Amino acid sequence: MSYLILVSHGRFSEGLKDALSMFVGDSIHTVKAIGLQSGEDTISFGNRFKSLLSDIGSDADLVVLGDIIGGSPLTTVCNILEQAGRLSTTVVLGGMNFPMALNAAILKDTSSSQDLISATLLEASSAVKQFTVHHEDDEDEEI
Fold it and tell me: What is the CATH T-level fold of the domain 2-140, as seen in this structure?
């Protein structure tokens, strides 16, 4: 079984998981969310992550999405995964957004790691663009 772990500052990951539940239905039980809360130190956060990780079988595949590469939450999670001997087999991506998380949630059980990485990063970047409204010219409208 594969798990998607959403990692963020604050409650961003929890909100993202809530939004994902509208799209992935029962598969949401394989999505976990954890965020470094305001005023929380990384030791406390790390202990919460260790608890979350202990609920996941050691043979499970992991995909970790973080809000910011180099941020304390993702760095802490990666350090704990390394200590547990699981980092080298875990897919870790940063710059998390909704399209990226949705794609990872859908593909995590059916795609190879490399295919998941390619598709997820492509979806994440292609979804970021300016929204524009196109108006039809008044001359083109029939009265």
Answer: Rossmann fold (3.40.50)
Prediction pTM value = 0.90
Of 83, 52, 50, 64, nearest to 2 by C-alpha is 64
Residue 107, Ramachandran bin (φ over 0: left; ψ between -120 and 50: alpha; else beta): alpha
- Residue ranges per structural domain of the chain: 2-140
Tokens of 13: 């990951």
Are 95 and 64 in contact by the 8 Å Cβ rule? The answer is no
| 59: Cβ contacts below 8 Å, ≥ 6 apart | none
pLDDT in tens, 18-70: 999 999 999 999 999 999 999 999 999 999 999 999 999 899 999 999 999 99
Decide if 116 contacts 91 (C-beta within 8 A). Answer: yes
pLDDT value at position 141? 55
